[in-house]
Design a protein that fits this description.
By secondary structure, this protein is an alpha/beta fold. It contains four helices and six strands; from the N terminus they run E-E-H-E-E-E-H-E-H-H. The longest helix has 19 residues. It is globular.
């Protein structure tokens, strides 16, 4: 399931929110996608960002990096420090890909192989999850991580400049 907000010219920042809403804390990405969508609309910032929600990253997502200034991947992580880990990421130098489920670094590598130049600066926001059982709800600690992540995202997205994101 790929949900896109726009068409036409690429918006400066693309945000991938990855996860399965039916698997407990794996819903962190889709939950943040929904909150971001509302917040960006309310703040009248939606025209600067493209939000993409999917169960997992695939080779085709490399196409969504074209014409971007910044890329953000949001996902849940089982062994992530609480409440989240936010860091810049780089393309993988190992050419590993299949027809489904890529880590963000491999999506960046596919872009490099397609375009012949470095991908735009990319970041990963990984929010700690604890329970990924089918049919489970978000855990209270995941909700706390989502709240903390939204505070960071509000600050970053008000100033979507690379220097600000690198601080």
């Amino acid at each position: 399931m790929i949900l896109r907000q726009s068409s036409g010219q690429a918006k400066p920042v693309v945000i991938f929110a990855v996860g399965n809403p039916s698997r407990g804390d794996d819903a962190i990405g889709p939950e943040l996608h929904g909150q971001l969508e509302k917040w960006l609309k309310n703040e009248k910032l939606a025209d600067r960002f493209e939000l993409i929600e999917d169960f997992q990253l695939n080779i085709e997502h490399a196409l969504d990096l074209q014409g971007r200034e910044i890329v953000l991947f949001i996902d849940a992580g089982e062994n992530t420090p609480a409440p989240f880990d936010f860091r810049q990421i780089f393309r993988s130098t190992v050419a590993t890909h299949s027809t489904h489920a890529l880590p963000p670094e491999s999506v960046l590598q596919v872009y490099y192989q397609m375009e012949g130049h470095e991908p735009p600066p990319a970041f990963l926001l990984c929010v700690r999850g604890e329970s990924f059982d089918l049919g489970a709800s978000l855990t209270p600690s995941a909700q706390e991580g989502i709240n903390a992540a939204m505070a960071l995202l509000r600050r970053l997205l008000r100033e979507p400049e690379l220097a600000e994101w690198l601080r």
